[in-house]
DNA sequence: CATACGTGGGC
DNA sequence: TGCCCAAGTAT
């Protein structure tokens, strides 16, 4: 593999989910111990040693910084921690290590950027200060607090997990193994919460760490492949500081977010530049391998803004729908050239009697591999007893919007509707 | 392992 | 505009 002495990382003998490998330590290499209690399968090379604080069997793993001349993994950990200490951003969830807040932040940060999360995090913790408050709140209210943040399943799963925690006699789950049993908590989030809130020595491998390590090792292979992921995971473990795992993990992610960015990384300011193979080769941007993307299909939808007094008509999506389950949406039908055809479609779907008038407002709404272009119509709707059976309707005002679970697009349209009348 | 899930920002 | 990416998880 790599010529730079990291051959242990993806050795062919990797069999378990943990890719630590014990290597013959040269005279200058450092051996570090990592206790990893979130292991379901026995580690193929580690030795079982004692118990963690939560009673789970710990596996002792020897992580060897393989023959990097005079450099050692310890140096890298220290450089990283020192850099983080002086350069870390002040973020609201960094003010406390209290597990609930850490957990909320980690869920919100899944596939979501920091600046997007900040206001949601603040208002969410104001509304639901403790896990008990969250558990006791109606799901509707939790979804409303999540409105516009996306991936709404996260809110449902968090609410469900909060109930599990509140009903449990054991308090907040305190190990990555336990945390991973919660809905919405996968390997990354479990490791992040366990290390930050509980000091568990477990590495995280998120998109940032993946990129940082792919560059550090100049690993060109596709990170989707499990062998490559293992190598990256092992590399992340090798720079993990076992005294301050939470800070260490955050440091690596912060590095990826601010210095080792996808585009135009600022290698000059990187605490690991001496250790980075891609930087030495002068082509950091070429790692990791670009992921293939499916082409986006585009659909066009007509949505109707129907006003009564100062309120707008919304309908509730079915709980069982895969897309934005239970969220309130504007009435919509596939776009057609004829307003009459669309009016008929609205009537078929929602009942009532419709009159429509096209405005020139178009809002894009993307869902992974689809893009919906929303053509907004001002409409009149006369309900009778002909409103579609089993479909929940609501008239909401701009002020009441905060109490309803709506997508970002609906939020924007409701926000700007006043100017259209 | 591939796919779907929301959204906002950068270039 | 269009494409890429972002503190992932569940199926």
Which features does this protein show?
single chain; 421 residues; alpha+beta; Endonuclease III, domain 1; Nucleoside Triphosphate Pyrophosphohydrolase; 2 domains; seven-stranded mixed sheet; three-stranded antiparallel sheet; 18% strand; disordered N terminus; DNA-binding
CATH superfamily of the largest domain: Hypothetical protein, domain 2
Number of separate domains: 2
Helicity range of the residues? 25-40%
Query: Architecture of the largest domain, CATH level 2?
Result: Orthogonal Bundle
CATH topology of the largest domain: Endonuclease III, domain 1
Report the CATH C-level class of the largest domain. Mainly Alpha
Average pLDDT: 82
Number of helices: 14
> Care to count the β-strands?
10
Q: Return the structural class.
A: alpha+beta
Rg to the nearest angstrom?
Answer: 26 Å
Order of helices and strands: EEEHHHHHHHHHHHHEEEEHEEEH
Give an account of the 3D structure.
The protein has 14 helices and 10 strands. With 421 residues, the chain is of the alpha+beta class. Strands 4, 5, 6, 7, 8, 9 and 10 form a 7-stranded mixed beta sheet that branches. The protein has a 3-stranded antiparallel beta sheet with strand order 1-3-2. A hairpin with a 5-residue loop joins strand 2 and strand 3. Helix 1 crosses helix 11 and helix 9 packs across helix 11. The protein binds a DNA duplex (11 and 11 nucleotides) through helix 2, helix 3, helix 6, helix 8 and helix 9.
